[in-house]
Amino acid sequence: MQGSDAASPPLVPSREVLIDGLRLKVFDGYLESAGAHFEALSKAGFTRTEVARPDTVGYKHWVNEVRLEALVRQPIFELSMRATQSFAQTGETFRPYRAYTNVASYGDMLFTHTDCLPGMGDLTALWYICDEWDIEWGGETVFYDQHGELVAAARPRPGRLVVFDGAILHAGRPPSRICYKPRYTFAIKFERITR
């Protein structure tokens, strides 16, 4: 599970946001096979076992875990590694420790949470896996500052990737009532490694 090839350039973000000194970057146009991924996920098995925080354990949502051995052989992993390169300081790299897909539909409850403790430097690479998405369907991921104010949002788009510091408070929003498609997000969690 080494980083991407040193000759591969980092991906260029379409948008960057700084939230309380923590970085968030949006990447568009790199995953051409989002529709094929969407079709594959429509046949995948999900379990209702995922929780956002310890105090929301009574409100589980749907998840499909991906083994890291399988993840590192996928083109989406190489793209994710290239996107994390711009977050690395000299002598640092990132290593995946978990990968999974969440699915949400109208009526699901998704809670605010962080993916790591402050100062850890872990990253989350969040892919929107859809073949189409209408702006009226909702399903955005919203990001909050330290005062609980919403300061950024990323809406689903086919193949969109959002990479962010896992200490940023965020929440996925379920699709609206007029959306009859599932909202799939594929997440890869990365830990910072100092060489």
Gap from first CA to last CA: 14 Å
N-to-C series of helices and strands:
EEHEEHHEEEEEEE
Count of spatially separate domains: 1
Taking all residues together, what is the mean pLDDT?
92
Radius of gyration: 16 Å
Proportion of residues in helical segments:
10-25%
* Major sheet summary line: 8 strands, antiparallel
What is the C-level CATH assignment? Answer: Mainly Beta
For this structure, the CATH topology is Jelly Rolls
Q: Please tell me the CATH architecture by its name.
A: Sandwich
Number of helices: 3
- Assess the beta-strand content as a share of residues: 35-45%
Class inferred from helices and paired strands = mainly beta
Characterise this structure:
11% of the residues lie in helices and 36% in strands. The chain is mainly beta. It has an eight-stranded antiparallel beta sheet with strand order 1-2-9-6-11-5-4-3. A three-stranded antiparallel beta sheet has the order 8-7-10, with no helix packed on it. The chain is globular.
Keywords:
195 residues; mainly beta; Jelly Rolls; 3-stranded antiparallel β-sheet; 3 helices; 2-oxoglutarate-Fe(II)-dependent oxygenase superfamily protein; metal-binding; dioxygenase; Pro_4_hyd_alph_FE2OG_OXY; L-ascorbic acid binding
Short précis:
The protein has 195 residues and is mainly beta.
Secondary-structure blueprint:
Elements: E1 15-19, E2 22-27, H1 34-41, E3 47-50, E4 61-65, H2 68-71, H3 75-84, E5 92-104, E6 123-129, E7 141-144, E8 150-154, E9 161-165, E10 169-172, E11 183-194
Antiparallel strand pairs: 1-2, 2-9, 3-4, 4-5, 5-11, 6-9, 6-11, 7-8, 7-10
